[in-house]
Amino acid sequence: MIGINIGSKTIKVVELEKNGASFSLVASGVVGYSGTTVDKMSEEKEMASIAQVIKKLCVEAKISSKEVVVSVPEPLVFTRTIKFPSLTDSEIASAIKWEAEQYIPIPVSEAIIQHAILKRSDTAGPDGGVIVLLVAAPRIIVEKYVKVVHMAGLMPVAVETELIALSRALSPIDKTVLLVDLGGSSTNIAIVNHGLLSFSRSLPVAGDAFTRAVSQNLQITPQQAEEYKKAYGLSPSQLEGKIKNALDPVVRLVVDEIKKAVNYYLTDEKGEMPTTLVMSGGSSGMPDMISALSKTVGMEVALRLGLQCVNKICRKILT
């Protein structure tokens, strides 16, 4: 089984092999990519170009399988929880598309809609009923991702959101955690309750915004700013704290959104307070980023980058 993530900066591929009740890593690879994103592609030659990049990456990484699970970027999907009365599973399945009309900003006929039951309570009163996770994506965007995978000579068997994939891979099943994926173009925030994605939000501020802040503040090129960001991050002792000072306003913006997400989940969703913040994504590896978030968010922070996640994925995927 292959997993492919087509990001705004890189394309990543990983192959896992099932061994009994668990999975082991067979191969992996990553390549930089700065072309048009899949969702904005309109011409066949653009899709053929990125498909060729994926095909070459798979060859160089010695990927042998053809079956693929591909992720769709979080800003392109609509995810939210809905509360139903005490209906059966089949009744919810029949009602979900009608309910979806009021929650997604595109016609239901143009969307691919899936759902999962998060919680069922037979208690009388306002605490009773069924909590359902609704996930919807524009059909045309999903079809573009599927087409690119086909053009790369692979067989797509599933399409899922980035946060659902990360939730399964990184979140423990015995507690509630806050998951923050700090990527290139977006910061994706999720609250995962005992292994189940229960809340998500996407913020269009992440690594690119950090780089712009450093570039503008220090009057240097974006390429130089990227290197300084990676090398010095939020360290107050490096370069007289100039990089930290440039980054601080953007980091505060991300922290404020994280706090808003948690507050909404606790007050409106009546959820359980997360005990740990799990960080992933390339931008979360900046120096002193973890300590800064731990202080400002007020909870323990765990960092999960790259292949650090593989052992957890191997134990949990498809089990």
TrEMBL record:
The membrane-spanning stretches of this chain are: none
Q: Which SUPFAM superfamilies match?
A: Actin-like ATPase domain
Supply the InterPro entries for this chain.
ATPase_NBD, FtsA/MreB, PilM
The cross-references to NCBIfam families, in alphabetical order and at most eight, read:
pilM
UniProt name for this protein: Type IV pilus assembly protein PilM
Origin organism of this chain? Candidatus Woesebacteria bacterium GW2011_GWA1_40_43
